[in-house]
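User: Okay, second chain of the day. Same drill as before: sequence in, structure tokens out.
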Amino acid sequence: MSKTLPYNRLETMKPIITHLWFDKQAEDAVAFYCSVFPNSKKGNTIYYNEEAAKMAQMPAGSVLTIDFELDGKPFVALNGGPAFKFTEAISLMIPCESQEELDHYWDKLSEGGEVQYCGWLKDKFGLSWQVVPAVVKQYLADPDPERVSRVVAAIMNSQKLDFATIEAAAAAGVRF
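Assistant: Same drill. Structure tokens below.
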């Protein structure tokens, strides 16, 4: 039986923090992500002590975790060893307001990574991202099923998404 939190607890709840597990690349990943996103910064770093290092099979004194923010959103990077890898089951979405913004994130995050379809890519650390026009969500919720079909087709037939192509699909009766 689940217990519901009292309403006042919801008002004071701390932000949910995305925790990213890396093999040994946490420092490089944090530096990279902070260089890509505005209003981003590295926070506290915690290092493996002797005991924790033995348990994790990591060098004592190496980075355990790094707190960081991407555009003001909190994250933690963990050097946890090779036990777990990123998969497409989790992705971070960047809703973009312009093609210029979309191109910036796509170009930076795909460098050294893997380009996929429908606005998805894996960065050089294996983390999946969706770099999409913010307006896509509105189009996918449109009550006109033909418009939704055209927009979905435009997305499905693309790797990096293009504002003009999606806008044209939404506006016209043209199928892609």
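The chain is about 35% helix and 25% strand.

User: Thanks, on to the next one.
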